[in-house]
Amino acid sequence: MADNDNDNKSSTLVDLLGPKLIRNTMGGGNSEISVAELARTKKTIVLYFSAHWCPPCRGFTPILSESYAKYEEGDNNDGDDDGFELVFVS
Fold this sequence. Notes:
This protein is of the alpha+beta class. 47% of the residues lie in helices and 24% in strands. Strand 1 (20-24) and strand 2 form a beta hairpin.
């Protein structure tokens, strides 16, 4: 039953976001990541909607980015790799 739930989650996210996302690495590069793979491997996927013209977003996005970078580096990560993924939607 759990595999079926994961398949449903994967297909719903692929329908919503498309088959692949572009991941900005902390080093400044880009890579592609499969949405279905994210759905299978992450417990939580956070969709963060933002816009460059929005003053509150311009203030909050750098704070969120810094916090996420610390999480990815392991400062706030409990070692459980299936935690969450942050998807920036602009």
